[in-house]
UniProtKB/TrEMBL annotation:
<dbReference type="GO" id="GO:0046872">
    <property type="term" value="F:metal ion binding"/>
</dbReference>
<keyword id="KW-0472">Membrane</keyword>
<feature type="domain" description="CAAX prenyl protease 1 N-terminal">
    <location>
        <begin position="29"/>
        <end position="201"/>
    </location>
</feature>
<keyword id="KW-1133">Transmembrane helix</keyword>
<feature type="transmembrane region" description="Helical">
    <location>
        <begin position="172"/>
        <end position="195"/>
    </location>
</feature>
<keyword id="KW-0378">Hydrolase</keyword>
<keyword id="KW-0482">Metalloprotease</keyword>
<feature type="transmembrane region" description="Helical">
    <location>
        <begin position="285"/>
        <end position="310"/>
    </location>
</feature>
<feature type="active site">
    <location>
        <position position="275"/>
    </location>
</feature>
<feature type="binding site">
    <location>
        <position position="278"/>
    </location>
    <ligand>
        <name>Zn(2+)</name>
    </ligand>
</feature>
<keyword id="KW-0645">Protease</keyword>
<dbReference type="GO" id="GO:0004222">
    <property type="term" value="F:metalloendopeptidase activity"/>
</dbReference>
<keyword id="KW-0479">Metal-binding</keyword>
<dbReference type="Pfam" id="PF16491">
    <property type="entry name" value="Peptidase_M48_N"/>
</dbReference>
<protein>
    <submittedName>
        <fullName>Peptidase, M48 family</fullName>
    </submittedName>
</protein>
<feature type="transmembrane region" description="Helical">
    <location>
        <begin position="60"/>
        <end position="84"/>
    </location>
</feature>
<dbReference type="InterPro" id="IPR032456">
    <property type="entry name" value="Peptidase_M48_N"/>
</dbReference>
Amino acid sequence: MNFIAVIILLTIVADFVLHTLADVLNLRMLGDKVPEPFQGVYDTERYRQSQEYLRVNTRFGWITALFDISVLFVFWFGKGFLFLDQWSRSWNQGPVLTGLIYIGILIAFKTILSLPFSIYATFVIEERFGFNKTTWRIFATDMLKGLMLSILLGGPLLAGVLAFFEYAGSNAWWYCWIVVTIFMLIIQFIAPTWIMPLFNKFEPLEDGELKHAIMSYAQSVKFSLKNVFVIDGSRRSEKSNAFFTGFGKNKRIALFDTLIAQHTVSELVAVLAHEIGHYKKKHILQTMIISFAELGIMLFLLSLFISYQGLFDAFYMEQKSVYAGMIFFGMLYSPIEFFLGIFMQMRSRKNEYEADRFAVETTQDGSSLADALKKLSANNLSNLIPHPFYVFLNYSHPPVLKRIRAILNS
Ligand SMILES: [Zn+2]
C-alpha cells in the first residue's frame, strides 16, 4: 500500500470516526424536558417522538455509512477498479467512451446498492413518523426522471471534461472550468422553469390576503416579485419548507403547500422576508462565486494529479487513464472538501442570522418569525438541542433555539 492509499484510507476512517463521535454526543444531549420557548408548541408526546426520530435516523445513518465503507473496501482491495477497467477497455471504444462506460457503471453500481436504503428511509422510517406521502409510483417515476436527467445533462458534460483532459494538455483544467461554470449557470437558470416542474407542480399563489400581504411586503423592500409559487410538497411528504431559486428574471420564490396550510399570513410573510433577506444580502451570489472558485481550484489540482503514477498504484491499476484518475483524485480530494464544507457551513450559519435580522428589521415583527420557526421545527420533528460539535460538523443552519433567541433579542 503506497502513501496515497494510506491518506485516502485514513481520511475515510477519520471521517467516519468524527461523525460517529458527533452522533454519540448528540444523542447524549437528549432528555425529557421540552425547552422553554417550545412549551405549548411541542407537547410531551410530540417531543418524545422528535427524539425517537433522531435516534432512529442516527442509527440508520451508521448502518448506511458502514455498508458504504465496506463495499468500497471490498471493491478497492479486491482490485475491482482494475477489473472494471480491463472490462471497459475490452470494448475498444477510445478513451472518452471507455471513460463514460467506466464511470457510468460505477455510478449505476452505487445507485443500485443505495436503493434499498432509500426505500427503507422513505417507506419505513418516514412512514413510521407520519411524514411519508410518497407512493411507490411517485418513487419509481422520480428515480426514472432523475436517471434520464443525469444521462441527458451529466453524460455530455462528463464526456466534455474527459475529452478536455484527454486532448487539451495543460490547458484542460481551465477549459473545463469555463465550460462547467457556464453549464452550471445555465442549469441554475433553467431549473425553475424546466427541471423542477418535472418533479413538482408549481402554481401561482391565488389572489387573496396572503398574496396581497406578500406583494406589499416585497414592494416595501424594493424586491421585484412577479409571482409567488405554491409547490405541491405534500405529494411526497408532510414536511414543509420554502425556497428561492434561479436568478434574474427567472428567480422564483416557492412556498410548500404544507407550509401554507400550517402558518398564519404574518408568519408566512416573515418566512418569505427571510428568503428575500438571503437575496438582498447577496448570500446567493456569494455562495455561487465561492463554489465557482472552489471548482477552479479542484480542477487545477486534478490536472496536477491526474497522471500521477502513485494515484493509480494505490488502486492496483495497470494502466493510467483520465477517467480512473478523476475517480481516484475525487477520493484524495475529500480532506480538502471536508474542511471547505465546514467553512461553507459556518458561513451559511452566519448568513441565516443575517437573513433573520433582515426579516425582523423589515417586517418589524420578530415574534411572527420566531413563531414560524417554532412551528416549522415541531412539524418537521427537528432536534432542538443538538450538540455543538454535531452542529459544527453537520449544520447549515444554526440550532433553532439560538435563532429564536437572536430574533427575539434584536
Ligand atoms: Zn435561510
